[in-house]
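Hello, quick one for you while I still have it in my head. Could you read through the record and tell me how the C-alpha cells relate to the sequence? No rush at all, and the record is pasted right below.
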Amino acid sequence: MNTEKGFIFDLDGVIVDTARFHYLAWKKAAAEFNFELTHEQNEQLKGVSRVDSLKKILNWANANVSKEKFDELAANKNADYLTYVEKMTEADILPGVKEILAEIKAANYPIALGSASKNAPTILEKVGIMDMFDAIVDGNSVSKAKPDPEVFLIAAKQLNVAPENCIVFEDAEAGIAAANSAQMISIGLGNEQNLKEADYNFSSFTEITFNFLKQLQPK
C-alpha cells in the first residue's frame, strides 16, 4: 500500500446523490409541526448528523418537542430515508466517481469513507462499491459530528496516513470545515459559493484528473 497519500470521501452528495432523499424525508418530518423546510435550509444540513439536523430544524421552526417526540421524529425520518435507499443501484453513483476510485485503487493508494451517515455501509453495498474502501468511518464510529474533524482524523489513522497527506472530497460546508481543521487538503464538490473555504473547487468528479490528485502537496 502506498501511504504517501490517503483519499477520504464523504458519501452523500459526493459518491451518491442521496441529498434529495434526505430533503424529502426531513421535509416530511418538519411538516409534522407545520414547518416548511426550504432547499436553502436543507443545504445547511449537508454533512450534519441526524440529531443535529433535527435540532437545527426545530430551531428554525421555533418548535419545542419532548424527548420522546424528538426520538420518534428522528427514527421516522431515517425510516423514510431508507425506503429510498432500498431502491438504489449502481446507476445512483455520481458521474466520474467510479473512474477516480478505480485510478486511485490501481495506484495502490488507500481510500476511506468519512461520512456522518449511519447508513453508509448499506448504501455502498447497494451501489456495489464497498470493496473499493480500505476503511469506513461513519456515524456509528464517531461521537462528534462535522465540523469537528474527528471522522477524518479516525479515517487517516485507519489508513495509516498522516492527516496532512490526506485529501478529502466534500460537498458540505461543515465537511470542508472539518477537513481544514484536520489540516487535510480539502476539495469541494458542488456550489463553489457554498464551499469557498475549500482548497480546491470542482462542480463534479468529471472535472478532476488523477494526475491533478497525484501532484497535490500538503498545505
DSSP finds nine helices and six strands in the chain. The mean pLDDT is 95. Residues 5 and 165 are 5 Å apart (CA to CA).
